[in-house]
Amino acid sequence: MSDIRTETVPLVDGSSLRLTVGEPEGAVRGGIVVLHEARGVTDAVRDLVNGLADDGWLAVAPHLYHRDGADELDGDEAAVREQLERLDSDQVLADTDTAFGWLGDHDIDADRMGVIGFDLGGSVALVVAAKRTLGAAVSVGDMSGPGAPSERITALVAAAQGLTCPWLGIYGDAGDADADAAIGRLQEAAAKSEMVTDVVVYPQSGHRFDVDSDAAADAWERTLNWFDSHLR
To answer: Where is the Dienelactone hydrolase domain (predicted)?
Structure first.
């Protein structure tokens, strides 16, 4: 059983970044930054950190809402949207860099670092895979679903074209034409990059395909295999 804990890292702006950390009992294979979903560091995110640690990865999830004092949002969808609107992309990338720096302080080299994100975190993971040097990235769902602003889709497509590491995109088919088109654009853009990429879409499983046990199990296996193959 891995050790799950919360650490606090001081930042240059005087604030502090909370990190949920999962540390393997045995040898550490590498390090993975876990970027949380729109509702924050939920039980599902903590379970993911724990699962990665059980598989031998030093996993760290930065609490991206720390400037507002929140770890997890319990409110309705309107409260979640309000929190998302307050997010600053530069600050999110800075917090992600802090998490990578924490892994580096624990003797993890960049080519053995990966990133995985869900929902909100899936979008951030894709951007990180284009802007930072690391070993592999996985996006599990993202903000390109129904109602997403067109400028956000454009930004993600641009990121996919400029990938600097192997990237795996995992999505559920929500039966929405706009969402399907956005995923198709991401897939085409990623194929134009110089990196190894793969996009998996689970049909008839909805945006939150993790409620489908078969799809969730297959996605988890693909994720572990992706990191196994590319973080060495």
So the answer is: 21-230
Phi, psi of 152 (to 5 degrees): -70, -40
Enclosing domain of residue 209? 3-230
Q: Shortest CA distance to 29 belongs to which of 112, 106, 99, 105? A: 112
**Is the Cα torsion angle 40, 147, 222, 195 positive or negative in sign?**
negative
Strands 16-23 and 3-10 come out as antiparallel
pLDDT digits (tens, 9 = 90+) for 34-92: 999 888 899 999 999 999 999 999 999 999 988 887 787 876 777 777 777 777 788 88
Check: CB of residue 116 under 8 Å from CB of residue 124. Answer: no
Distance CA 49, CA 2 (A): 9
Instruction: Give the pairing type, strands 113-118 and 30-35.
Output: parallel
Claim: this prediction has a pTM higher than 0.85:
yes
Give the DSSP H/E element, type plus range, for residue 230: helix 213-230
8: helix, strand or coil = strand
Q: Give the helix/strand (H/E) hosting 78.
A: helix 77-86
Which CATH number characterizes residue 182's domain?
A: 3.40.50.1820
Contacts of 210 (CB under 8 A, 6+ apart): 44, 216, 219
- Report the domain count for the chain: 1
